[in-house]
Amino acid sequence: MTRVARVHICVWTLDRFLEKLAAAMTHSSAFPVRNAQGSGAAPADDLPRWRLDDLYEGLDSPRFAEDLKILAHECRQFAATYRGALAGLLAGADAASALHEAIARYERIDDLATRIMSFAGLSYAENTIDPARAKFYGDAQEKVTAASTDLLFFQLELNRLDDAALAKAMERQPLSYYRPWIEDLRREKPYQLDDRIEQLFHEKSVTGHAAWNRLFDETIASLRFEIDGQEMTLEPALNLFQDPEEKVREKASAAISATLGANLRVFALISNVLAKDKEISDQWRGFKDVADSRHLSNRVEPEVVEAMVAAVRAAYPKLSHRYYRLKARWFGKEKLAHWDRNAPLPDAPKTTFDWTQARAAVLGAYRAFAPRMAEIAQEFFDRQWIDAPVRTGKAPGAFSHPTSPSVHPYVLLNYQGKPRDVMTLAHELGHGVHQVLAAPNGPLMAPTPLTLAETASVFGEMLTFQALLAEAKEPRERRALLASKVEDMLNTVVRQIAFYTFERRLHEERRQGELTAERICELWVEVQAESLGPAIELKPGYETFWAYIPHFIHSPFYVYAYAFGDCLVNSLYGVYRKAEPGFVDKYFALLSAGGSKHYSELLAPFGLDARDPAFWSIGLSMIEGMIDELESLPA
Fold it and tell me: How far apart are alpha carbons 150 and 431 in whole angstroms?
């Protein structure tokens, strides 16, 4: 789960949920394939559904209604006690204890607000087209926003305290415990506005960007794609790009482009409004570049991101361009249509995994790495923390939402029995393990910035992939596994950097005026053509495919975190394969730190430094090495 600017407790809580949801909804890559025994995917009735009563008993829960009242009361009392009083506390005889008590009380309120919004958000994700759930979600958002208005002063006032006096107080117990959070918060100081403007931004968020986010979600959930006389929602339609029959893939592409095209004006309007909304906010806060606020919230230096982007774009010819030429040759073609980009290889084994097989594959890979990792993941199965079936109205994609540290994470999947679904399970359980390990840091320091948010998830995928690859005996099976993993990595690195490049161009052009839907489509095709290379032919209709990607709506510039995480994990995995002493302990220490340490401090024990340009070459070289092996395999 990612972190956004911390001057808005409610908006931070809500966006933290929405960003992870948005991120996962486009994690649709080509994943490894292997032979499996069994008759196929389990029916939806045999797949697990989560039990949200660890949060609240239901939409009509008296405890939920009572907690909303308690939240409002606690926020008012907190403001009555501490508004205008922090400087006095710092000047007092026991400043460390007094400020610690204030922050601890604030943290308890944050935990309650997070619990409330987690339940509302997860209930909504179960069925985004249910009017009752949509109203419940919207009402909860409004009430939490209204209550937390009384807390806006706190972080602003903390950041106005004298630097020297606060630094001295943070050296002493018990305030030293919160030092990482306070220092993190003070990075926001140059971009804070006065209290009344912050309050306006906070209260208007419900009818501003949050409302447009909700419109996007409900529009996407309501879309239907007609394929061979059958209407389906977005997730099953996108899943057809994995179908072995080219005609099926082509029909899926035509249906998706037709439906998106019919709704393009709405998506263009949403994109224009949100880009302008962000521009206004950036101007008021003093951010210069369109992505500066994202870099700040990620706690990553802009030059590090730009070095990564430059390295990936420079590697397009030897990664994506080279691989897709190879894949086209396997298909006996000079070029592949865009709907064939993630198609299974012509001789790939056709397989499905039932739920029992998927669970065994992931837990087995986790256990081989570290029994403790498998034990934590096992809890998700045993305690009904996973919702797996595909259902009408259910949020597409997959995510692991940490809820609040006083509860536990929940994983949402749309499991259809394909090998890629096994890898998605491994990915989201990686997030879940990370969230469980980070939870003891508490609500303020458990959330992990984007620089490390994808570490455990991508590492979990890599462990599972390597376990499956070790079982592959036949050359065609090994080729299918390697090809699918390469495609997954290209989707995670190349595709996400292309997304980032597209977003930059859209937001930069929006500063000059509104973009037409046609212009957005042009930008999309230009950037995708550059990243995919000449062996992928972008057929008519592909120009609309930007419209369904929720990252662009909920969390601008989130996407580079995937490339950051994949390259980081490739480097980490390289250290692991060298059998470095104490690797597992260091890895668990990294995950357990949550957001309490900077990424550079956490990578140092592994001998890794993301500020070194060579760091990115290490991660990219692993992809190149897999392509080398694919080229060497017998035809």
Answer: 32
**pLDDT value at residue 262:** 97
**d(C-alpha 342, C-alpha 242), whole Å:** 6
Determine contact, residues 40/354, Cβ cutoff 8 Å. yes
Are the C-beta atoms of residues 500 and 559 closer than 8 Å to each other? Answer: yes
- Cα separation, 215 vs 237, in Å, equals 21
DSSP 151: G
Decide if 409 contacts 20 (C-beta within 8 A): no
Q: Which H helix or E strand runs over 515? A: none
Q: Was domain 237-349+490-554 assigned CATH 1.10.1370.20?
A: yes
- Summarize pLDDT for 323-370 with one digit per residue, the tens: 999 999 999 999 999 999 999 999 888 778 899 999 999 999 999 999
Say how many C-beta atoms besides its own lie within 10 A of residue 475's C-beta: 12
* Percent of the chain as helix, strand, coil, to the nearest 5: 70, 5, 30
% of the chain residues with pLDDT over 90: 74
CB neighbour list of residue 355: distance below 8 Å, 6 or more residues apart: 41, 42, 46, 47, 48, 388, 415
| Fold type of domain 9-34+46-212 | Butyryl-CoA Dehydrogenase, subunit A; domain 3 (1.20.140)
Joined tokens for residue 152? 């806006």
Listed in sequence order, the residues at least 6 apart from 422 whose beta carbon sits closer than 8 Å to its beta carbon are 31, 32, 353, 357, 358, 361, 362, 464
Domains of the chain by residue range: 9-34+46-212, 237-349+490-554, 355-484+590-632
CATH of domain 355-484+590-632: 3.40.390
